[in-house]
Amino acid sequence: MALLSGHGIDVALPAGWDGRLYRRDPGEQTAAAEMSPTGTTYAVLHAASFPLPADRGDLGSGAVEMMRRDDVLMVLVEHGPEAVGTALFAAPGPPSRLSPRDFGPDSLLRSIPGQLGTQRFFSVNRRAFCLYVVLAGNDLERSVPVVNSLLRTLRIDPA
């Protein structure tokens, strides 16, 4: 396992996985940058069972199109402090465990045949996040435990 760490976030990646943890330049127009009234950008984590392309959106566009059967993509996008305490981010988190029934095609940001997704919004340590997971293929009994093992290693420090 390799530890991916930065911006107050740590996650242990399984052997063979690719991961990136970054903050966009405030001048870049992305969904994350546009969420902040101050133009401040926040942390974005991508963890994938396949090589991540250099050019990809915060929520995985550019990467999901490259997924093959049994690939997994986990995305964690931080939102600004104004989101903490709102109804959307009220759940305490991050989720400790997902189940196969949490995944479906209706949770995908963009429908791609053979892919299933889930989204979870939560707050932890005065920080607000969206967790977005995409699975390729239908072997949920194999893929979901891999996601849960990643979630067990996820650590988020206070803002």
Description:
The protein is mainly beta and 159 residues long. It has one domain (2-137). Mean pLDDT is 91; it is low at 31-35. It has helices at 31-35, 140-153, and strands at residues 2-6, 9-13, 18-23, 43-48, 72-79, 115-124, 127-136, 155-156.
Number of helices: 2
pLDDT average, as an integer? 91
Count of DSSP strands: 8
In angstroms, what separates the terminal alpha carbons?
26 Å
Q: In angstroms, what is the radius of gyration?
A: 15 Å
- State the helicity in percent bands: 10-25%
Query: Order of helices and strands, N to C?
Result: EEEHEEEEHE
Largest sheet: 5 strands, antiparallel
Going across the major beta sheet, what is the strand order? Answer: 3-4-5-7-6
Principal-axes geometry comes out as: globular
Q: Give the count of structural domains.
A: 1
Structural class: mainly beta
Unreliable residue stretches: 31-35
Proportion in β-strands: 25-35%
